[in-house]
Amino acid sequence: MLLQRSGHGAVVLTEIRNVLDVGGGDTEDELFDVETDTFSRGLNMESERWCCGTAVLENSRVVVVGKYDRVNFLSASNIKSLGPAMTAGRMRCAALPVSSSRVLVMGGQHDVSSRSYLSTTAVIDRATSSPGPCINTARSLAAAVLLPEDGGVLILGGSNNARADLATTEVLDVTGDTSAAAPKLGSPCSSCAVVQLSGEHVPVIGGFSDYGPVSIYL
Question: What's domain 1-85's architecture?
Answer without folding.
Answer: Beta Barrel (2.40)
